[in-house]
């Protein structure tokens, strides 16, 4: 008689019907889970495509098949479908979703934000979810082509963090944290690396490092061709790659200032994608990655999410976190200022700032406490299952439950 996993989540609601949401839906359905895909009434994404196929979603590439997906633009129905809600909307759409979710009682719901980009900074005082979790990056490299979601790559692991409870929140009973972790792990097909604070997740999101220098330094080519070139192999030239690596150095310096030991962008790419070789430099990866050069994937204009999302919700909080530690991060600042000129509005003013979260005047130590607490040094006598993660490529860590204090 087969063993039944009592902690496996049978149903999941996905908010956001773009490429990532569709890839997630196909992945979940391929593993036998009931999936409801929500698209905002004004931004329904791929819902019409699925509805035209009588509720069937076609997927190719790393996830191949035809899967039955329930769809809705009624958020009440989406919330009723499952106590586990995964959002895949771009960060610049999160405030809209947050404002809508704040109208519902979510005390019995677990909200998983993918990609988080410091979503908790906005959400921590607005919704009453049982738990809020953030991942560092999308699980899939994916595009929608015609009537099919094409999953060209699946990452091997994701960093994830669960919010600390407020002093008013009901604390989880003994053993419930571990069960929640097992339930969340059953939703993802990737290995989850559990982090002790939000900074580990937010600084481990490599999208701003990858996308922003290449998008800004290829502005002429993007505007002339509407993105008709290979963003990685052609757009990430040796010069662009040097800027990318400099941004990465500044990201890693900020992480170290908060006690975090993160891996470089090149190491991350080698560890999270299946390659025929190990690439020694970032330029070698960009030129030689088969997965990332299956499609051209260059932005079609300069108001693309590679800037609107990755700078507003990635680089801006990185830069401010660095300032708390006395780090000027000149390359990151230069890219933010350049993006502001290109886009015609102030990214520093409109980004996900610490001030907007009530942490503008907070010290470095207060920021750490508000976002989960300092990373603890692993006890050499502890078992692997008990040891906190400091380096993102190592073992899972237990959830940190540090009270919020801004």
Automatic annotation (TrEMBL):
Span of the signal peptide: none
InterPro entries in the record: 6-PGluconate_DH-like_C_sf (IPR008927), 6PGD_dom2 (IPR013328), G3P_DH_NAD-dep_N (IPR011128), NAD(P)-bd_dom_sf (IPR036291), Opine/Lysopine_DH (IPR051729), Opine_DH (IPR003421)
Protein's GO biological process: glycerol-3-phosphate catabolic process
Opine dehydrogenase domain span: 194-342
This protein's UniProt keywords: Oxidoreductase
Pfam family membership, one: Octopine_DH
Segments forming domain Glycerol-3-phosphate dehydrogenase NAD-dependent N-terminal: 12-113
Molecular function in Gene Ontology: glycerol-3-phosphate dehydrogenase (NAD+) activity; NAD binding
Reaction catalysis annotation: sn-glycerol 3-phosphate + NAD(+) = dihydroxyacetone phosphate + NADH + H(+)
Keyword Oxidoreductase: yes
Domain of life of the source: Eukaryota
Entry protein name: Opine dehydrogenase domain-containing protein
Lineage of the organism: Eukaryota, Fungi, Dikarya, Ascomycota, Pezizomycotina
């Amino acid at each position: 008689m087969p063993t039944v996993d009592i902690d496996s989540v049978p149903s999941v609601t996905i908010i956001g019907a773009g490429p990532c949401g569709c890839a997630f839906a196909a992945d979940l359905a391929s593993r036998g889970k009931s999936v409801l895909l929500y698209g905002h009434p004004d931004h329904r994404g791929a819902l019409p495509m699925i509805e035209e196929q009588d509720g069937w979603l076609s997927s190719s590439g790393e996830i191949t098949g035809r899967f039955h997906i329930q769809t809705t633009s009624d958020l009440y129905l989406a919330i009723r479908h499952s106590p586990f809600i995964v959002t895949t909307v771009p960060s610049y759409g999160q405030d809209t979703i947050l404002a809508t979710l704040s109208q519902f009682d979510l005390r019995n719901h677990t909200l998983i934000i993918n990609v988080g980009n410091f979503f908790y900074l906005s959400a921590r005082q607005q919704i009453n979810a049982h738990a809020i979790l953030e991942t560092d990056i999308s699980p899939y490299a994916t595009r929608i082509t015609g009537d099919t979601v094409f999953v060209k790559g699946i990452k091997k692991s994701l960093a994830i963090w669960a919010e600390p409870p407020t002093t008013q929140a009901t604390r989880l009973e003994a053993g419930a944290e571990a069960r929640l972790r097992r339930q969340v792990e059953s939703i993802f097909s990737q290995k989850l690396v559990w982090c002790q604070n939000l900074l580990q997740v937010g600084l481990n999101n490599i999208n701003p490092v990858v996308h922003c220098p290449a998008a800004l330094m290829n502005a002429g080519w993007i505007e002339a061709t509407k993105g008709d070139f290979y963003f990685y192999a052609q757009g990430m030239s040796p010069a662009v790659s040097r800027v990318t690596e400099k941004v990465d150095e500044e990201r890693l310096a900020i992480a170290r200032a908060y006690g975090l030991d993160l891996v470089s962008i090149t190491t991350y790419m080698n560890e999270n994608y299946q390659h025929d070789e190990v690439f020694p430099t970032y330029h070698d990866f960009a030129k030689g990655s088969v997965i990332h050069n299956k499609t051209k994937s260059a932005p079609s204009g300069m108001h693309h999410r590679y800037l609107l999302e990755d700078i507003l919700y990635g680089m801006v909080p990185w830069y401010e976190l660095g300032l708390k530690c006395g780090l000027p991060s000149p390359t990151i600042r230069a890219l933010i200022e350049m993006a502001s000129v290109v886009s015609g509005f102030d990214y520093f003013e409109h980004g996900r700032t610490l001030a907007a979260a009530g942490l503008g005047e907070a010290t470095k130590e207060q920021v750490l406490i508000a976002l989960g607490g300092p990373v603890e040094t692993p006890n050499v006598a502890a078992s692997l299952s008990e040891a906190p993660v400091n380096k993102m490529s190592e073992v899972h860590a237990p959830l940190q439950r540090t009270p919020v204090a801004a």
